């Protein structure tokens, strides 16, 4: 670790480097949204100093948030013990989270470490947001398809104000098909804004301590309404298109 580094993996930046990396990673992430490393980099450099400091202050002002900052828990497959989650009640937070991981074929071990935020405590805040992202998917039931990611990003922006989430919610719909974009603007963006603004700060939720709790009760306490089932709406839309195609291709009677 160099003399300028403040925590393991920290990459200190001067003002020019910070501006250059913000612009460069933002443009690159827009062009190729599948590059999670670019999205992570843009999320960090665009959040510092104002936005991540504000989130840190929100956590310090909340009793649970302060405990999270003090304990600095990490969310990984080992820290959560996924095998134990299988034994929890069906509608518990932990079981809902595990089911979402299995359904979407994702792992909690894929989140990149924070590197470009200078203050160690603020770096942890960003790491915590990053590792809790799958809980936000799980508690809202939104899948990892592009539509679902946009809806979650809009929800996160309304709840946290992190610039990267707002930019993603604004730009990524342009890359969707017309029917998907319409569904987002008609259903999921209004839901995301309403629930994100109304909900308690999700960064102040100690997810590891409420794994056994009923998910519906937690949503009610946080102020989150479940959105319509996106996968089901997508399935119905696909079926409708197939039926219309079959009807148009069917031979007409003489």
Automatic annotation (TrEMBL):
Cellular compartments annotated: Mitochondrion inner membrane
Cofactor(s) required, per the database record: Zn(2+)
Membrane topology note: Peripheral membrane protein
Catalytic activity field: a 4-hydroxy-3-methoxy-5-(all-trans-polyprenyl)benzoate + H(+) = a 2-methoxy-6-(all-trans-polyprenyl)phenol + CO2
Residues that hold Zn(2+) according to the record: 133-134, 137, 149
Pfam families per record: Coq4
Pathway(s) annotated for this protein in UniProt: Cofactor biosynthesis; ubiquinone biosynthesis
Keywords: Lyase, Membrane, Metal-binding, Mitochondrion, Mitochondrion inner membrane, Ubiquinone, Ubiquinone biosynthesis, Zinc
A molecular-function term among this protein's GO annotations: zinc ion binding
InterPro entries xrefs: Coq4, Coq4_euk
Cellular component aspect of the GO annotation: extrinsic component of mitochondrial inner membrane
Function: Lyase that catalyzes the C1-decarboxylation of 4-hydroxy-3-methoxy-5-(all-trans-polyprenyl)benzoic acid into 2-methoxy-6-(all-trans-polyprenyl)phenol during ubiquinone biosynthesis.
Family assignment from sequence similarity: Belongs to the COQ4 family.
HAMAP family registered for this protein in UniProt: Coq4
Subunit composition and interactions: Component of a multi-subunit COQ enzyme complex, composed of at least COQ3, COQ4, COQ5, COQ6, COQ7 and COQ9.
Protein name in UniProt: 4-hydroxy-3-methoxy-5-polyprenylbenzoate decarboxylase
Gene: COQ4
